[in-house]
């Protein structure tokens, strides 16, 4: 499915999406509270069949976080970038690890580095760092003992 057809199908699936310009892949921004149900549709819809989560990461924009997921359909061979804006003061989102198993460790990594909590995650705990270390990929992170200041 080409980008235009994909965007039209996604709009029919869920009306309140935004489609920022992305020349490489189709991209959709979904409200945070609808991310889980939207992702379920992406996987189960016969015309989409997004059966593989390639990556899940986050970006700190100082006033909010952006969760970024790259998805592909291994049978239909199309790709999609799905983003959701997460409130910085309440850094929480629903897990998608029940939809794509590959999200389980990637969400743990995002939690470890950004402090974003994933509701209903089966094993949300630090992946690399100690519990009291802080979240080093946040733009407001500082570690004076190790001279890291941003």
Describe the structure.
- It is a single chain.
- The mean pLDDT is 93.
- The protein is α/β, with parallel strands linked by helices.
- 22% of the residues lie in helices and 27% in strands.
- The relative contact order is 0.14.
- The strands form three sheets. A four-stranded mixed beta sheet has the order 1-4-3-2. Strands 5-6 form a two-stranded parallel sheet. It has a two-stranded antiparallel ribbon with strand order 7-8.
- It has helices at residues 3-13, 35-44, 103-114, and strands spanning 26-29, 52-60, 64-72, 79-87, 92-94, 117-119, 142-143, 148-149.
Would you spell out the secondary-structure blueprint of this structure?
Blueprint: H1 3-13, E1 26-29, H2 35-44, E2 52-60, E3 64-72, E4 79-87, E5 92-94, H3 103-114, E6 117-119, E7 142-143, E8 148-149
Parallel strand pairs: 1-4, 5-6
Antiparallel strand pairs: 2-3, 3-4, 7-8
Give, in spatial order, the strands making up the sheet with the most strands.
Answer: 1-4-3-2
State the helix count.
3
- The total strand number stands at 8
- The overall pLDDT average reads 93
State the major sheet. Answer: 4 strands, mixed
- Uncertain segments are none
User: Distance between the terminal alpha carbons, to the nearest Å?
Assistant: 42 Å
Strand coverage percent: 25-35%
Structural class: alpha/beta
The shape is elongated
Rg estimate, integer Å: 16 Å
Topology pattern, helix = H, strand = E:
HEHEEEEHEEE
- DSSP helix fraction: 10-25%
């Amino acid at each position: 499915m080409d980008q235009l057809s994909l965007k039209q199908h996604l709009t029919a699936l869920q009306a309140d999406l935004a489609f920022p310009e992305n020349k490489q892949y189709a991209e959709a921004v979904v409200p945070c509270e609808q991310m889980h149900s939207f992702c379920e549709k992406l996987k189960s819809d016969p015309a989409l069949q997004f059966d593989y989560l390639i990556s899940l990461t986050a970006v700190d924009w100082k006033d909010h976080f952006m969760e970024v997921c790259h998805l592909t359909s291994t049978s239909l061979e199309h790709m999609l970038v799905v983003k959701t804006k997460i409130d910085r003061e309440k850094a929480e989102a629903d897990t998608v690890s029940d939809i794509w198993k590959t999200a389980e460790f990637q969400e743990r990594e995002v939690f470890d580095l950004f402090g974003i909590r994933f509701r209903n995650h089966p094993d949300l705990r630090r992946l690399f760092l100690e519990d009291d270390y802080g979240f080093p990929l946040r733009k407001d992170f500082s570690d004076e003992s190790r001279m890291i200041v941003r």
